[in-house]
Amino acid sequence: MKLWQKEGVSTAEQIERFTVGRDREMDLYLAPFDVQGNLAHARMLETIGLLTTDELTQLTTELNAIYAQIGQGQFEIEDGVEDVHSQVELMLTRKLGDVGKKIHSGRSRNDQVLVDLKLFTRDRLWQVAQAIERVFNQLVKRSEQHKDDLLPGYTHLQIAMPSSFGLWFGAYAEALSDDMLTLQTAYRLANRNPLGSGAGYGSSFPLNRTLTTELLGFEGMHVNVVYAQMSRGKTEQTALTAIAAIAATIGRMAMDVCLYNSQNFGFLILPDALTTGSSIMPHKKNPDVAELLRAKSNRLKALPMEVTMVLSNLPSGYHRDMQLLKEILMPAFDEILDCLSISEFMLEHLQVKPNLLDDSKYDLLFSVERVNELVLQGVPFREAYRVVGKEIAEHTYERPTQLNHTHEGSIGNLGTDLIVAQMKQALDGFGATRAQEAIRQLVGMIE
């Protein structure tokens, strides 16, 4: 029987298929986190007298055994079992009988799935943060490596002013440091404990929600039990908004790679191992990796709106609509992690063309440098601007031979140390060490 099923009452097969949907498939993502939540809840039940010490020991032993099965890839949700929560409880009951049935005391499936989702989202967001850090480090490395390799700068896709590959790589590094702040916000919202909120209205048992908060390593709890349920959807939307911000950065960089790799620009070279060919044109080396990164990023950017539409016009409390959020959230983590991994690989192997600005077609890039030369000689800026414009029109303009950019964040002073400090500050703000240590202790991974 299902956790909610009554004696002698059954659901039509068509209704069950429609209402369960892909939930059992998505719930496999939640399995280790369901065990973690059960371990914390069981310890708390023992402290308030709803479990004996011996019962807690039995439950803890079996839950750790299930956790090991999950880690070894041996866990599955059996046919006819509705969800991961039912499967774990079924396994406990098979082993422990009535003791296994006690695990649900003081809890609803609502706060059970909520805590699972919070723990899952917290874990995956930290994985994304670590993947971003690896891409960031690659960008910083390439920025410093190519700080003296000049690159045409564009506005309106027209040549504008001199840039450098140091600036280009560094710009995306700093963009990721900003994205990390958005990710940190999502992490901290996921890092709040809903356990004990029941179906959204609490319990008459004297539950110790502070204890489960500490055991699971949460930063704090969702205090109001009604709001704890209302955080379903907000947590997913905030996480996906952070993913969308990262995807926007990665997608924009991928577009630059596509553009800069094309023959009409010719600023970057993708090695053969990073390109594909054409079935009809033997000369082709296509930047499929960058193109797919662009497409995948665009798709990820749409996901927060999907959540918005699912949540539209819902009153307070739990609604089955929210089940669909799993199908939006969970695969998104796999996708962004894959995109970040391939971005790191691409950045490591793409090649930069040196001496690009030696070509006379880029002479006008230095027109502002020529204006500034005159200003330094005492000519007012507006007059200097007019003079250089006249030189260009009359074909008497000659490009300056030197660049003098010294301020923070410019060609001659990338400010890499400041960008690295920003990223470190953002990462430190997660407070992830506390959560990881709590989970290690909870599942008995330290002596």
TrEMBL record:
SUPFAM superfamilies: L-aspartase-like. Residues 30-299 form the Fumarate lyase N-terminal domain. It comes from Spirosoma rhododendri. Belongs to the lyase 1 family. Argininosuccinate lyase subfamily. This is Argininosuccinate lyase. GO terms for cellular component: cytosol. It is found in: Cytoplasm. It holds the Pfam family Lyase_1. GO terms for biological process: L-arginine biosynthetic process via ornithine. GO terms for molecular function: argininosuccinate lyase activity. Its EC number is 4.3.2.1. Keywords: Amino-acid biosynthesis, Arginine biosynthesis, Cytoplasm, Lyase. InterPro entries: Argininosuccinate_lyase, Fumarase/histidase_N, Fumarate_lyase_CS, Fumarate_lyase_fam, Fumarate_lyase_N, L-Aspartase-like. It catalyses: 2-(N(omega)-L-arginino)succinate = fumarate + L-arginine. Pathway: Amino-acid biosynthesis; L-arginine biosynthesis; L-arginine from L-ornithine and carbamoyl phosphate: step 3/3. It is an enzyme of class 4 (lyase).
